[in-house]
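User: I want to check something. If I give you two sequences, will you return the structure for each one separately, not as a complex?

Assistant: Yes, each is folded on its own. Here is the first sequence with its structure:
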Amino acid sequence: MRRIRKAVHAGYCWGVERALDIVHHTAETTNGPVRTLGPIIHNPQVVASLSEKGVQAIESLDELEAGGTVIIRTHGVAPAVYQQAQEKGLTVVDATCPLVTLVQNKAKQLVAEGYHLIIFGNPRHPEVIGTLGHAGGAATVIEHPEDVCQAKLPKKVGVVVQTTQETERVGALLSYLAPRCKELKVFNTICNPTIERQDAARELAREVEVMIVVGGKNSSNTRHLATVCREEGARTYHIEEPGEVQPEWFAGVREIGVTAGASTPGWLMDHVIARIQELEADNLLPA
């Protein structure tokens, strides 16, 4: 019998739960169309479920007529988006994660203090795009620590970090930055739930042969979880739903670990575990 173990910290963080509560409350108490600007979280099952209840995701405010309600997703947006919504006569409900708001505020603070701002994160991620907007566009986005070597930077540099980054990558970034700066001010704005999930995944990955990471393929924090599991030597599979589980993954395996990103509902992780157990009960897993 194979042993399946769940990471101590996995699944929804409080920021995601808060955002979903806001969406449900808004949908229940609002007349007229309610839309989220982009997917409220990076989980396709949750987004599809909300769409079935009438709360669809839109990619542009142009898709919503005056009088409608738009919900700002957990990742936040630039100030210009709020201004555009107001000009269109839309009601704005803000579900930005407070820890993302903290990044935005620290970015503004560093710019106000005269630091050249570095945002360490994925330049295509909505959180980073929104933070750049709050900094007035006056920042350099660094995706990989070694990219610092090609960046033109002054001697006074301030840093904020995308909330879903890995701690080790921040350390690597600073090792490149420190020799190039006379004054360096850093706010390590990785959120605590991200750190907890990464630490728990690392610990479990050291003790099992296979790790299953459940969550959206477009979820930055979930992809990072898969990365840290691989770094610990566990054979790792990143899946979005139970149907992706393949029996051959578990040939000769006795210990299986399961974790999930901060935007993954607990029930989805439980369904993946149930799928593995079902395959074993039906003798479909290789010896």
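And separately, the second sequence with its own structure:
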Amino acid sequence: MRRGFTLIELLVASGVFLFGFTAALGLFLIGTRARAQADGMLRLSLAASSIVEEIRLEAGRETPVGPYKPSEYLGDGFAAITSPDDAADPALYPYAPQPGIWYRVIGCVDEKGDPEDKLATALRVDLLVVWNPLPDPTLSQDELARRQRLASKPEYTAATDKLQFLADFMAKRGFAVRETAWIIRKPSWER
């Protein structure tokens, strides 16, 4: 008498195989996505460190008339380059050494929390760093809010500081890095 597999046994074996294969493929895809997200966060963290170091190197090399106020570092972080009007502009700045990285200094105060103390040597800088792989010539707060589908949400529209809200939202979801760093300005104005 010949023994073989019945049609039902073949169907059950195929189902078990397909179930196992689907589960393994799903785990592989989750691992690939997690690795890509980790690579992105690493890239953002390295860019944030580089930007903070560049700001640290430039801080204190103010004009001969004296130092800038901490509030004048808002924007691209280089007070000697930007004007106070740039702080009100909601644009993000491309970070030239790493294409696809955009940043903005969203807060700068002295050690006492005063954004207007010109003679402060220690500044607390709040930096937002975003990865944008699209070839955009400019990137703004409004565009980021639109991409995150925040523009129509009541909590975003009711926020007093929309940039801070957007920065918190994106950082919590892993789309951006917020870096808070202390910058010690070399008091070149005291020479």
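Because they were folded independently, the notes below concern the second chain alone. The chain has a mean pLDDT of 84. Helices lie at 7-58, 85-88, 141-147, 154-157, 162-172.
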